[in-house]
From TrEMBL:
NCBIfam families listed in its UniProt record: T6A_YjeE
Keyword line: ATP-binding, Cytoplasm, Magnesium, Metal-binding, Nucleotide-binding, tRNA processing
UniProt family annotation: Belongs to the TsaE family.
Pfam family, one: TsaE
Gene Ontology terms: cellular component: cytoplasm
Gene Ontology MF: a single term: metal ion binding
GO biological process, one term: tRNA threonylcarbamoyladenosine modification
InterPro entries: P-loop_NTPase (IPR027417), T6A_TsaE (IPR003442)
Gene this protein is translated from: tsaE
Record's keyword annotation contains Nucleotidyltransferase: no
Primary location group: cytoplasm
Protein name, entry field: tRNA threonylcarbamoyladenosine biosynthesis protein TsaE
Localization annotation: Cytoplasm
Length: 157
């Protein structure tokens, strides 16, 4: 599933729609270069979960927790040295817990991610424009298959 974003607000809207239909236990993996818009996407996701807090990247804390319609566990694993650090902060309890997990730089910890996940890659294309982003969403696993149809049919974007 491909969304074309022409502004930070567009990216937020796609995240917001995903947040509005997310269920507990969802694991959303985000990839893309620095400045791609991963945190922007998470801001939308939080909005869709009825979270009003100001969202910032937990680059130094690894995880931030927010409470909305469901808890949101926002990870940024850019600075971890190895996956042991993830086990130390209780990564498994989060991802198999009652909330929605979203992981910036998920590719870095690919080996410890659940096989079933939602994969969101954001990339720039300077030839199209400075604010243009390609948002590619793929789902892995049975439990997410319905989501694709829901997003295609209802994400008004
Ligand atoms: P990341 O978390 O991937 O490092 P951020 O979301 O923190 O990226 O920052 C993205 C930056 O790019 C912001 O300054 C934002 O305003 C800018 N930007 C420009 N166009 C877009 C777009 N279409 N989608 C998302 N961000 C955009
Ligand atoms: Mg970020």
């Amino acid at each position: 599933m491909l969304f074309e974003s022409y502004s930070p607000n567009d990216t937020e809207k796609v995240g917001e729609y995903l947040g509005s239909i997310a269920n507990k236990g969802y694991v959303i993996c985000l990839t893309g270069d620095l400045g791609a818009g991963k945190t922007k996407f998470v801001k939308g996701l939080a909005k869709g979960l009825n979270i009003d807090d100001y969202i910032t990247s937990p680059t130094f804390t690894i995880v931030n927790e927010y409470n909305g319609r469901l808890p949101l566990y926002h990870f940024d694993v850019y600075r971890i040295n190895d996956t042991d650090e993830m086990h130390e902060i209780g990564f498994d309890e989060y991802i198999y817990g009652q909330g929605v997990s979203v992981i910036e730089w998920a590719n870095i910890i690919e080996e410890i991610l659940p096989k079933e996940n939602i994969w969101v890659d954001i990339s720039k294309d300077m030839e199209v424009g400075e604010d243009y982003r390609k948002i590619q969403i793929k789902v892995n696993g049975e439990k997410y298959q319905g989501l694709i149809w829901e997003m295609i049919e209802k994400c008004e974007f």
